[in-house]
Amino acid sequence: MSAADEPTESRVRRDLRDALRQAKKFSRGDISSGDWFPKLLKIALASGAKHATLEGFHRQYPGLTDDQIVEERIARAKRYAAVKAVVSSTVYSAAVGAAIGSFGSGMLIGVPIAVTAFLADTLVATRLKVGLAHEIGVVYGHQFNFKDSEDVYDLLRIAFGKKAGAVARDETAGEMPSAKESGWLAFAKGTAKAWAKALPKVGKFLLRRQALKFMVPVISVPVNAGLSYRATGAAAERAQVIFRNKASIRAWVTRLVDRIKDKELLLDVIWLVVVSHEGATPEEAWLVTSVSDAVRAAPGGKEVVEAFEAAGRIDSSEVVAALRKADPDERAALYQAACFAATVDADLAPSERPVLLHLAEVTGQRYDRTQLERMARRWA
Description:
mainly alpha
């Protein structure tokens, strides 16, 4: 690691001062509505490690494997988090102490300077975690895209934990487009819009969750540093799991598309599984996009995907008839694709089971619930 890349107290103080300037731009309306959170995410992404490349990391860490490079970046982020905790703790104490002296302890959450300090600290922490997630993604072959719904969900899980992701999922439950009523491409795009609407709700959740830092300003610096260090480590572990899984899924999709001759039938089979239940998950939406991209890249695939997107709904009886005519190896591969689509979100939904049972009968394969549950646990 170069000296310029090593986190120092002066560097962290500079980052925190910059974050304070950014935080002061948020209005009271932004804070009360939760709109501060999507704005903060955009700032973090714009200023994060967007220039990270795998080639650059290999030059910086010659001779190390991808996993070893990731461990080096995680160790660096943990050191930064520990330094940040020490620096930001003094900012919190000063801001909240001044608020108590001026207004009394009953108005802490409403005091602008205390909220500004929280937003600044959250921005620095978000930059750190978003940057780390981006770096880990780059090493494992994934580029983060703020406009992609699955990437946004991954970011929430990585940077803020499962509860933040759960808040967003609950908020999007009524906003997700119906896979049955929308086409393949419209479904993926509609899902992205639904997730964008959920971000302010996550902002409100995070503000409430961090209230302890305002109400208990005397939390010791060593304790705060330890919590920050562990939180960064936990975020890194989540990022490793998510991006390793995505790399495995991409490799699996590539092999599957190369193996199956009838690309249109592949799209049909996966779509049958996705539309078997309402409120398709972000993981399923991302799989739909991944398969589309892989098919589009195959010879003649562009026309296949465009025709499929334009068709809208599909006739399940026609899909079954086409499956019966396929050769045995093709049928086996297509059934594997259906099983993968049903379990890629780490859950085998009750509505997906009859679909897989029917496809198993049509393709001459054995429906193995134990194996399916094992496949689902792999992505948990």
